[in-house]
Each structure stands twice: as structure tokens, then as C-alpha cells.
Amino acid sequence: MSEKAHYGLLKGKKGIVFGPLDESSIGWQIAVHAYREGASIAISNVAAAMRFGNTDELSALCGNAPVIVCDASKNDDVDSCFKELKEKVGKVDFIVHSIGMSQNIRKQLPYEELNYEWFMKTLDVSGLSLHRLVSYALKNDVLNDGASVLALSYIASQRNYWTYSDMGDAKSLLESIVRSYGPRLARRGIRINTISQSPTYTKAGSGIPGFEKMYEYSDLMSPLGNASAVECAEYAMTVLSDLSRKVTMQNLFHDGGYSSMGATIPMIKLAHEVLNDQELAARVGLEDFKPSA
Ligand SMILES: NC(=O)c1ccc[n+]([C@@H]2O[C@H](COP(=O)([O-])OP(=O)(O)OC[C@H]3O[C@@H](n4cnc5c(N)ncnc54)[C@H](O)[C@@H]3O)[C@@H](O)[C@H]2O)c1
């Protein structure tokens, strides 16, 4: 790991990160940064990720962190995951949910023709699983008072992004679960939030049709540019630390300012140039566009 400034923000804390697959994963970067900030951690993913990802390498980078196999869409798996966590690590101060999957996106089904079994799976794996993690963490008395629960979201929870398909619905559910749990967990000083991250080149991210174009558009629309997975992890450290102990039930945008922008000068100029060049306009399907009267 490169030598970077660290602040001991998580010194003495323990936690678990669900969803690191390889170095590109947001969860991977969060795990590495949490360890560097002084936390003892465990990492978790589905069995297939152990075969196709680099979980052992991550474990070694994080002080031989225990690796716990768990499908977050299965009650029994989640239950035994927290039992194993308590045995191997003890009670924890943070849980990170960095999980997402849509079979409908993988197979590129149009939104109007979604496979409903897959739709339910998307909602279950990418949204409901956060509820399940918190529920079983409570049942197993794994969370310390004042703990921080963090999940990763995307702005498609609130706005339409055509190719994000049923993942937009899953992210709305995820953010709603955060709000529903907030006051219930607050009784023990436990916080729960989402970070809404820029498009990021990861296995899940780059599986979205047209991801490269979405990434470029978002970059052009963000005054500070798209945020990387490493930058997301750096921000996440503050959310997991005591520095944010009164922040709960929030969807925290980490997107270079994208979510507050209406338009940027380059995007306006670009649109104008395209609309006034017949050949270019035709190439992007805008040959019939006429400004509204
Ligand atoms: N990449 C982006 O552009 C972007 C932007 C905003 C938010 N996010 C969110 O960040 C989170 C992490 O995704 P990522 O981009 O790092 O991609 P990633 O592919 O590296 O991570 C997704 C992880 O989810 C795991 N997973 C899938 N099904 C699971 C299940 N049933 N149980 C447990 N784990 C399961 C996968 O094995 C994988 O490790 C996701 O919630 C994603 O929606 C990503």
C-alpha cells in the first residue's frame, strides 16, 4: 500500500465490510482505508467472489482479516456470518454494505420487459440485504453503541438514468431503509447513512450498458470531476469515525458537486454545437429536434 497520510480515525474500532471483490471495488478501498486508519476488520462476500475475486489478497493487506462467506440475500447465511464475526472479531463499531447486483442489467433487458424474478433478486440483493444485515446484527448483539452503518448508493435513486434500470428502484429502497432504521438505531447512538457515489469503474459499475458515456457525462457535469473509489473510501472514513456521530439517516453525496449542478458551460456549448451541426445531430439521433416554441 502506498504511504499516504492517515489520521488514526478508526483506532481501536472493529468492523466488517461486505462486498469487496477486487482492487477496483469501492468496498475493497474502504476495507484497506479502514485498516490503515487503525480498525480491525473482517471482510465478507459470496462464495463465487472468493473464487473470482482477490479476497485472500485483501485479507493479507488488512492484517490477515477474517474472510466470512455470506450471501446477503439469505437469512441463514447472514445469521451465521454475524455469529462467526462475533467469535472471530467481537462486537463491531461499523458495518459497510457495498453490495449491488442486477441480472436484468447484466442481460440488458429493457425496463418495460424486466424479468420479475430477477427484479425481486435485484431488490433483495441490492436493497433489502441492508435491512437483513442490520436486523441480524441486532439479533446477534454484534453492534456496539455508537456504531456506524454505511451503504453505497447512486443518484439514480432519485432521478432517472435510463440504463440503470431496476438498480434505480433498488437504490430508492436502500435509501428508504436507511431512513426507516434511523430513529430506531438512534436510541443506542447508532448511525445509518448512505454515500451516493459518482460513477466508478468497478465490476458492477462497468457492467451497466453505456457506462463509459455515463462516466464522461458525469465528469463533465461535476465541478470537481468524478470521485474515485479511493476518494470514496477516504470520505467513508469520516462517516465511520466518531467525527460524524450526529450524522444519521442521510444520503451523503460524494460526487464532485454533480448532484447540485443544473448545467455546466461545456455541456451547454456541446449541446449547442451538436444541435447546429446537422450531420452530428443525426449521428446522435437528434436530426428531428426543434427547440420548443
Ligand atoms: N461503481 C459505481 O459506479 C457505483 C456508483 C455508486 C454506487 N455504487 C455502489 O457501490 C457498491 C459496491 O459496488 P462496486 O461498484 O464497488 O462494484 P463491485 O462489483 O466491486 O462490488 C459489488 C459486490 O457485491 C457483491 N455481491 C453481489 N451479490 C451479493 C450477495 N448476494 N451477497 C453479498 N455480496 C454480493 C459482489 O460479489 C461484489 O463484490 C454497490 O452498492 C454499488 O451499487 C457503485
Structural description of this entry:
It is a single chain. The protein is built from 12 helices and 7 strands. 45% of the residues lie in helices and 14% in strands. It has a 7-stranded parallel beta sheet, with helices on both faces. It is globular and about 65 Å long. It is an alpha/beta fold. The chain folds into 2 domains: 14-262, Rossmann fold (3-Layer(aba) Sandwich), CATH 3.40.50.720; 263-293, no CATH class. The protein starts with 13 loop residues before the first strand and ends in a 10-residue tail after the last helix. The protein has helices spanning 26-36, 47-52, 55-61, 75-88, 103-106, 116-139, 165-186, 203-206, 211-221, 229-240, 265-275, 278-283; strands at residues 14-18, 40-45, 67-69, 92-97, 143-153, 191-197, 251-254. The longest helix has 24 residues, at 116-139. The mean pLDDT is 96. It binds nicotinamide-adenine-dinucleotide. Nicotinamide-adenine-dinucleotide binds next to helix 1, strand 5 and helix 8. Keywords: Fatty acid biosynthesis, Fatty acid metabolism, Lipid biosynthesis, Lipid metabolism, NAD, Oxidoreductase. InterPro entries: Enoyl-ACP_Rdtase_NADH (IPR014358), NAD(P)-bd_dom_sf (IPR036291), SDR_fam (IPR002347). It comes from Chlorobium phaeovibrioides. Pathway: Lipid metabolism; fatty acid biosynthesis. Its EC number is 1.3.1.9.
Shape: globular
> Any guess at the CATH architecture of the largest domain?
3-Layer(aba) Sandwich
At CATH level 3, the topology of the largest domain is Rossmann fold
Low-confidence stretches: none
CATH class of the largest domain: Alpha Beta
Report the strand count. Answer: 7
Measured by DSSP, the beta-strand proportion falls in 5-15%
- Which structural class matches the secondary elements? alpha/beta
Number of domains: 2
Cofactors, ions, other ligands: nicotinamide-adenine-dinucleotide
| Major sheet | 7 strands, parallel
Give the spatial strand order of the biggest sheet.
3-2-1-4-5-6-7
The portion of residues assigned to helices is 40-55%
- Alpha-carbon distance between the two ends: 58 Å
| Estimated radius of gyration | 20 Å
- So how many helices? 12
State mean pLDDT (0 to 100 scale): 96
Secondary-structure element order, as H and E? EHEHHEHEHHEHEHHHEHH
CATH level-four homologous superfamily name of the largest domain? NAD(P)-binding Rossmann-like Domain
Keywords: Fatty acid biosynthesis, Fatty acid metabolism, Lipid biosynthesis, Lipid metabolism, NAD, Oxidoreductase
Pathway: Lipid metabolism; fatty acid biosynthesis
Catalytic activity: a 2,3-saturated acyl-[ACP] + NAD(+) = a (2E)-enoyl-[ACP] + NADH + H(+)
InterPro entries: Enoyl-ACP_Rdtase_NADH (IPR014358), NAD(P)-bd_dom_sf (IPR036291), SDR_fam (IPR002347)
